[in-house]
Amino acid sequence: MWLLTQSGFDETIALAQDGIKFIHNFSSAISHSTPHLYISALPFTPLNTLLAKMMMLKFSYLVQIAHGGLEDWPAVQLSLQGHNDIVSSVAFSPDGKRIVSGSWDKTVRVWDAERGVQIGSPLKGHTGTGKSPQLHSPLMGRGLSQAQRTRLRGSGML
């Protein structure tokens, strides 16, 4: 995360993000057969991505999509796994970068919306069965300890 605060690394960050999306989208085909990297993955890499612009120059002999190829990466649907009971409330942070979920397992979890990974450990012991939380609302923290509210504030959720 420190790289995000440094100047002059925009292209490096964009390439790394493309690499992650490439793996998310094509890992299944590539894991079955390495040649699928060249047959099924690189030709279908969206044209407007930095990865495609760099790699297609190096592999110009590959099959090309004549019409209808993707211009940008498709939206990725992620499954957030971690709760042990019914999830009763879910909300996004105002900037869309975090998701908070409350469950009947008496935990509140904060997630990275882009990567689908949990941020920190679960906040345990909330007492509400929870309707959908309103972020930046005093009601959102109801039933949480002061330390748990402080952690949520620090992650941008409260």
UniProtKB/TrEMBL annotation:
Repeat positions for WD: 80-121
Region annotation Disordered: where it falls in the sequence: 119-158
InterPro entries: WD40/YVTN_repeat-like_dom_sf, WD40_repeat_dom_sf, WD40_rpt, WD_LIS1/nudF_dynein_reg
Transmembrane intervals: none
Key words of the record: Repeat, WD repeat
Repeat in keyword set: yes
Keyword Repeat: yes
SMART domains: WD40
Protein name, UniProt field: Uncharacterized protein
